[in-house]
Amino acid sequence: MKTQATTRHMLLSLTVAVIVLTGCRGGTSDDPPVHLNRNMDTQEKYTAQRASGFFADGKAMRTPPEGTVARGQLREDPIYFTGKDAGGVYVPAIPFEVDEAALKRGAERFGIYCSPCHGFTGDGKGKIMEYKYPIPPTNLYEQRIYDMADGNIFEVISNGVRNMPSYREQIPVRDRWCIVAHVRTLQTKGTPVPSTTVAAPAPTADAAQSTPTNSTETAQ
Ligand code: HEC
Fold first, then answer.
1. Beta partners for 90?
2. Whose CA is nearest to atom 15 of ligand 1?
């Protein structure tokens, strides 16, 4: 008796499950799904990817008119945003007055973004070297880094160079300049060491591809 009841029970559950799981399959409907408690979940507004009956092309997502610049993203000053003047030459100095706050900010940001590779003092012996990183980061006390224009260091942070990645996305423009200021502060406390053979100006894209990685292996 007991097993019979259990079997009937199981059969019933199975039938219900099959009906529930397959019941609405295959049917399409233009009506919105049943949504008993709507609160304010569905509103008369445009969201990404939604269609529009108002615009001729039927898209709710509008392409901004050509030349549109988002607020706060107008990059009129090439020196400040690229480290190069209108002629494409690296500017020798940071394009704003470096005060105490900027230096502090630079030291802090250097500690966060550069020290893992270049070390807190900038000697190129950051934490990664303890893990035998195959491409030694440049020692920032090399003579050629002392000789490098501030705009060039800004460019290295912005776009990376050879084996160093770009920090454009992580570090906002003003912070990059603050970091350059901190590199200069470190350099005034240290003494220049001879440069490695890596040429200071970044090579062309082709040359960068073919630069053997071991050319920097002595760059301690
Ligand atoms: C992931 C490790 C890494 C981080 C983080 C890093 N660097 Fe580098 N950096 C390198 C390596 C590796 C090189 C040497 C690249 C080469 O010569 O191929 C280098 C080279 C440089 C150079 C010399 C560029 C040249 O033209 O020879 C400068 C200057 C420099 N880094 C500054 C910075 C600053 C400032 C930061 C912080 C914003 C930073 N780096 C963060 C790895 C790093």
1. 84
2. 163
> Which CATH topology does 97-197 take?
Cytochrome Bc1 Complex; Chain D, domain 2 (1.10.760)
3-state helix, strand and coil shares in percent for the chain, rounded to the nearest 5: 40, 5, 55
Cα–Cα distance, 185 to 178 (Å, whole number): 11
Residue 151 CA to ligand 1 center (angstroms) comes to 15
Domain boundaries, the chain: 97-197
Ligand 1 center–CA 167 separation, angstroms: 10
| pLDDT per residue rounded down to tens, the chain (220 residues) | 567 888 889 999 888 888 777 766 677 888 877 888 878 877 888 889 989 999 999 999 999 999 999 998 888 899 999 999 999 999 999 999 999 999 999 999 999 999 999 999 999 999 999 998 888 999 999 999 999 999 999 999 999 999 999 999 999 999 999 999 999 999 999 899 898 876 545 545 444 443 343 333 332 2
What global pTM score does this model have?
A: 0.69
